[in-house]
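Subject: Sanity check before I submit

Could someone independently write out the structure tokens for this chain? I want to compare against mine line by line before I put it in a report. The sequence has 270 residues.
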Amino acid sequence: MPVRTFLSALLTLVAMVAIVVALPSMWASERVIDADGFVDVAAPLAHDPQVQAFIADEITDQVSSRVNVPGASTLIEPFAKRYTQGPDFPADFADLVRQQHSWLFDPAPLRNSQEMQLDITAMVNRALKSANLPFVTSVPGTIEVPMAEGSGLDAGRYHTVGQQITTIGYVATAIAVIAALLALLIARRRGTVLIALGLGGLLAALLSWLAALNATTLVHRQFVNHSTGNALTRAATDALANDLTWWATIGAIAGAIGIVLGIVVRLIAR
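---
Independent answer below. Compare away.
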């Protein structure tokens, strides 16, 4: 086998492997590990009725447990629901999502790790302010609620892993681009290289799609016995899985274009 052909084949193989690694890792870096990306994906869940109901129930429970008024939950619940369906809730929910991300991906505090606690004080007080109830207008102190008790979601659990995935994503992307360009530069049959790169894109898309499907199944199974934070965690997982599926779709389209382009190049070269 000529050296030029061997090098082209080797670089093409390297590029294909790098593409398979780059797609899911770059998605994780940009849409999960990056705080702004995570908020972009999860914040629209503020309009999800199940999420609204979950937060309204938490507000009702937290206030009712802090006031010594018979039937307080019955009085508070309608106002909590109205708040979660109102214009102020999306911004407050985005802050809650950012807290969730910070808990998982920021460095763990210098204390014994504990499971995820999210501060809903602002939500509670905003709901009470709109309610204008005579027996309570705000709740003193900080109100933190546990999310997914028993799931092992400790503070900073994914900090190191997140950094590693981000590094892998950028390195794999750089390798894929450089190897693909070099392979095309030295190849005798550039159409074949394009077809191979397109197949790499399709394989990356398929694996990403399977990852999204399996992640949803695993998380739903893990939290089936955890009522606290269940709705919020499952909804966020579904949103992330849908986003990864969209990235996989884009990858599949790009791969298909590469294959078609490669076939055209080969036909022209005949």
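---
OP: Matches mine. For the report I'm noting this point. The mean pLDDT is 86.
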